[in-house]
Amino acid sequence: MTMRTPLRPLARVLDARAKGENPDAIERENLRLRHEAQRDRLRQRAESRLLLMALVFLMAFGSVGFRMAALATTEAEEPRVARSESAIHTTRADIVDRRGRVLATNFATNALYAHPHEIVDARAAADGLADIFPEMDADTLYTRFTSERRFLWLRRYLSPEQEQQVHDLGEPGLLFGPREMRLYPNGPIAAHILGGAGFGQEAVNAAEVIGVAGVEAMFDEMLRDPGQTAPMMLSIDLTVQATVEEVLAGGMALMNSRGGSAVMIDVRTGEVIAMASLPDFDPNARPRPLLEGDPADSPLFNRAVQGVYELGSVFKAFTVAQALELDLFSTTDMIDTRGPLRMAGFAINDFRNYGSSQSVHDVFTHSSNIGTARMAQAIGGERQQAFLTSLGIVDPSPVEVVEAANARPLVPSRWGELSTMTISYGHGLSTSPLHLAAAYATMVNGGTRIQPTLLRQDVPQTGERIISEETSREMRGLLRAVVTEGTASFAEVEGYAVGGKTGTADLPRPTGGYYEDRNITTFASAFPMTDPRYVLITTLQEPVDNSGPEDRRTAGWTAVPVGAEIIRRTAPLLGLRPEIEPLDAYALSSSSN
After folding, report:
1. How confident is the model at residue 2 (pLDDT cuts 50, 70, 90)?
2. Which CATH superfamily is domain 240-570 in?
3. Domain map of the chain by residue range?
4. pLDDT at residue 593, rounded to an integer
5. Residue 583: its pLDDT value, please?
6. What's the 3-state SS for 175-223?
7. What is the pLDDT of residues 252-273, one digit of tens each?
8. How many CA atoms lie within 13 A of 219 on its CB side?
9. Under DSSP, is residue 6 helix (H, G, I), strand (E, B) or coil?
10. pLDDT of residue 438
């Protein structure tokens, strides 16, 4: 129980009254004492509060001072903002050619979007955008601007000129979002190699750029790696690539061809120096894929990699090389070339009749189907299949574009004797020009297998040996003879000893059989044959040379002149010095006095 202090000292007051004294003095003294006690309590309480506040301020300023001292003694660091969502990586490494020239890079631009509720004049904004962007419809834009939507994407990227024109409209509801886009400064040059890129994950203020085809898709993860600071260097030479495409386009126009391809590779390193497929496209404005019809009708189709064809007589080089390697024949051995050669109800004929027998040398230079088929009979189907497999002919190419993995050569389901004979001269097996280029590089480089690559290499490849150096030397002589005395006489380029083999193959009908007036022509060449450095494969689809009295569709009249012109134009660019015959001693004259 709490004891209360009485307000008045009643006992003292009563005692004073009993004694006849005045009690007022006692009450005043009691009141004074009570006020002094109350004052002391209030002072003590105030002092306690001041002490507590002093301690709080001391601790606060102490922590601030401690933090300032810590910051003053540490390295400066850029502040980072934590985000709950995953970051959008906008960086992407450049792609350059073998000399460091830019093939693909990033370009800072802006996306265009709208907040319809902030648009002041929807009609003026719609009309203005339709004037700037012809693909936009003013009425459709007006309908969207006057809808209940609060956000609209209008365009993924803008050119600087378009951005300024939109800015000049002065419409507060039209907004820009910063982002980077992939730029290909050389336009369609090397389009099928680079492939192209598009936008992946997007936000208003950022968007990631991802590869959609070619090397851009093949190396997408590496190119998007923030740690990849150096550009990716390809094996192609931009100047050579541009020249190859220019000559190939001109040849297609002259030969009335609907498509063409050219592949040039280094026979020692396997580097693809140039690879062209026409028609092509501009990767800055990559067209949409075809949803129906023949994929080869699309400019996106890479004829050099995705196109698998029966390439015709260029395959005779493999048959002759294997026959020489197995020591079944020598170049001087005679072969029965009487025709037609019948097998399982199928007749094999030659384009021309060169007599009842020919040497292996003549079978190759005259391009005899019958003579080649007889050599294939001696080789046998099992050994032929193993040899072509060792050359990489029947498997997908390892070249670094995503399209290569699905471009599988077409081989017969049953590799019987008839298939062995027809494959020996390039029918019954379909493969790509790139496969052919790598195999021919193996034929002429001394006999070691070459795998094509689009990445810059510093040292020669050390592949397995496919044929001996002696067989490779003999094949170089035979390929040179095809130009000097055979079906590729138009391939002679002054100063550069060109060797090669022609191939003309009829195109198959979808319903079976072959067209009589539609073919694909190929010229498989190497230069200079004194010490081969490069292989060039040139193909034309459905060419027709109508410069003479009759239409001519064979490779000697169509693909060969185009290949020769490519070599004539690119050999100096590759640093190859022309070989000039030394003058006789009597041709030298001294100056007279």
Report:
1. low
2. DD-peptidase/beta-lactamase superfamily (3.40.710.10)
3. 240-570
4. 36
5. 44
6. EEEEEEEEECCCCCCCHHHHCEEEEEEEECCEEEEEEEEHHHHHCHHHH
7. 999 999 999 999 999 999 999 9
8. 21
9. coil
10. 97
